[in-house]
């Protein structure tokens, strides 16, 4: 009998569930946050029939309760290479290059996520994956020590890598192998309350940058947060204190709008957790480490290059503070004011080419026989063609830097010269990262062609 092949989407769902269960058991506040988010989502859907219908049409409703992203920080190029192979088994591929050195964080990153529409609809689970840039540690001796310590660890269980090889040579895993794989791969992301270094070395690494200590001092890249998707981030932010959770002061990303764009995120502070450190004489020393935090996000429409340029310009102008402005007006007010220049209705966003949309045939269109209208605009005006926002599936570097920073504390604000090094990142990864704009443009184009074909429009 032929062994049953496991489908990559199912492996990803099994894995993201296992990760969520593990994190919920380790960080009880995550469970509380998940409850709050699902209550807010339920209430939001009850209030807006239009939103519910649009999400339903785009098959977004099903995935909403599954949806989350996580983040890990790796120490060595080989770790990045192998994590790419591990995520590939789950249908997750590197999308985008994020340089965070400009923001004072000595890492660069990509996001592993599903890339085709069908897989995204099934489960969009993604992992923001950073690689530490040891070359940014100034002290030679400390850099050499960090390199040596990292060189001694292996973050994957042997069985994980064996199963990756089985997948790569035979092209699939059986259901039984997939279940084993999920359990084994999960180990890489587990929290370790024992450090691999002494308190003294930890302190030196910490003094260089808290993030360096976080990456170098442990056996593996513990998942540092898991983020559920909410339909109303302001409501969740407001509800957090009532559940004993203290959110960070400002929500990252665009302001609240009628038509959500890109991504808005907020987090609660990292927890100080007890850690056992080694002593040279073999005894142990108690200490603490702060790494894991909570985050929530609200996702909106993906912007075209033109829309993204406008977003970046408005955000930069809101963040530019001259002293007087900063003292007299709050950041949120300034943000809202600047973003008044960003159209806030779906029709204008589409007409001006600011955002990506998924086209589909309306009921009237399906029953109308051959369409006569000769342009997309006319088909829409006649009620035969409709468009729904394509959701942004990626991250925002300025927001990511804000999230990193809010968990580092002010004593950890460093400046590094901005020096993106995408080719070094891709060399470590062993692959090129995908261009997210191409993915969105293709999804839009394919939906339009499909709809026009169905309408037998002469436009096609
Ligand atoms: C990752 C921070 C980035 C996001 O949602 O932008 C991130 C980290 O702290 O390791 O997860
Ligand atoms: Ni995040």
From TrEMBL:
It comes from the Bacteria. Its cofactor is Fe(2+). It is an enzyme of class 1 (oxidoreductase). InterPro entries: HGLS, YdcJ_bac-like. The keyword Oxidoreductase applies. Its EC number is 1.13.11.93. The keyword rRNA-binding does not apply. Pfam families: HGLS (PF07063). Keywords: Dioxygenase, Iron, Oxidoreductase. PANTHER family: 2-OXOADIPATE DIOXYGENASE_DECARBOXYLASE (PTHR39479:SF2), PTHR39479. This is 2-oxoadipate dioxygenase/decarboxylase. It comes from Bradyrhizobium denitrificans.
